[in-house]
């Protein structure tokens, strides 16, 4: 029966499925080990003000290095942790660690800046999220005005009323809120006016071809002007080239993040970086901004 081409296909597909299932199973086991053996750590990527060139904040980004030295991208393992029901505990660890790090930088006398933490959808629907956040801040001794939380828009659209209430509660605590990856995936502009957020982070997808694609430039320009009229600030993500930076300055974007300015760094590397002169400053000077 299995000698026809169809039969071969059948085997081909089952082999594929088995391989997928096996690799998922392996990854799940490895993630459980990672939690037990503390294989996660954080890097911090600076967010630079285009108003005065200062470091306005750093985004905490989770990293996973396996015992064999290989690294796995969070884009890969975060969804898996979500499915496994482990994202809330890992997410709490991220919050806790980022708050402690921010406080320790303040105590070391570094210029003050915020720390941003990404929240997954599963964390955002936790009933006790505010208490968890409060506990992390209190334990670190960090003032809430130095914490920013990043959430994605797809998460808001699912249950607007509950989302608005959660955001408002967090905002009432004095925490800043940002919409991450704005414009990517599902987008509805109408809901935006209901969200008590402070910042829109324009998705890297629009920044990539900003200097060469008129449509992308138009979108970025429109988002910046809409955000400003709504009293929101704009951060452009994924700035990799000086041309993009020049355009963002001229469009009135107030903040940028990207490899051209700084990569995500380990805390001690970031501390050294903060002391060094910055090559990107020259892009701010001609406009009298720096
Ligand atoms: P995100 O929150 O949008 O973070 C920005 C991502 O873009 C980071 O990738 C960062 O390293 C990368 N990036 C920044 N500038 C550039 C650039 O100029 N060029 C390029 N090519 N990439 C740039 P990363 O660290 O791999 O994280 C991917 C995503 O994983 C994050 O996207 C976020 O959604 C998620 N993530 C990371 N850490 C956490 C976490 O602690 N909790 C949760 N829930 N999600 C996290
Ligand atoms: Mg983010
Ligand atoms: Mg993003
Ligand atoms: Mg993202």
From TrEMBL:
It comes from the Bacteria. Its EC number is 3.1.4.52. Keywords: c-di-GMP. Residues 24-278 form the EAL domain. GO terms for molecular function: cyclic-guanylate-specific phosphodiesterase activity. The keyword Oxidoreductase does not apply. This is cyclic-guanylate-specific phosphodiesterase. It comes from Marinospirillum celere. The chain holds residues 288 to 577 of 577 of the full protein.
């Amino acid at each position: 029966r299995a000698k026809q081409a169809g039969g071969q296909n059948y085997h081909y597909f089952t082999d594929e499925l088995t391989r997928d299932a096996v690799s998922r199973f392996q990854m799940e086991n490895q993630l459980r080990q990672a939690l037990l053996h503390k294989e996660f750590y954080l890097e911090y990527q600076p967010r630079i003000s285009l108003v005065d060139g200062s470091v306005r904040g750093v985004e905490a980004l989770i990293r996973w290095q396996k015992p064999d030295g290989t690294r796995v991208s969070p884009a890969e393992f975060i969804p898996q942790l979500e499915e496994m029901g482990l994202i809330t505990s890992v997410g709490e660890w991220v919050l806790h660690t980022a708050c402690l790090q921010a406080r320790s930088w303040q105590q070391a006398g570094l210029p003050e800046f915020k720390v941003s933490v990404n929240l997954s959808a599963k964390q955002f629907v936790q009933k006790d999220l505010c208490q968890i956040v409060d506990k992390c801040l209190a334990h670190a001794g960090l003032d809430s005005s130095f914490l920013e939380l990043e959430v994605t828009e797809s998460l808001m659209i699912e249950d607007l009323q509950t989302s608005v209430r959660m955001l408002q509660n967090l905002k009432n605590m004095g925490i800043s809120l940002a919409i991450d990856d704005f414009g990517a995936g599902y987008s509805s502009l109408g809901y935006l006016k209901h969200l008590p957020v402070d910042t829109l982070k324009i998705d890297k997808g629009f920044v990539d071809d900003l200097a060469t694609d008129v449509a992308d430039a138009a979108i970025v320009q429109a988002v910046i002007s809409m955000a400003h009229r709504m009293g929101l600030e704009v951060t452009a993500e994924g700035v990799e080239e000086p041309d993009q930076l020049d355009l963002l300055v001229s469009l009135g974007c107030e903040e940028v993040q990207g490899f051209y300015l700084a990569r995500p760094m380990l805390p001690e590397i970031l501390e050294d970086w903060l002391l060094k002169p910055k090559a990107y400053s020259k892009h701010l000077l001609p406009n009298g901004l720096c």
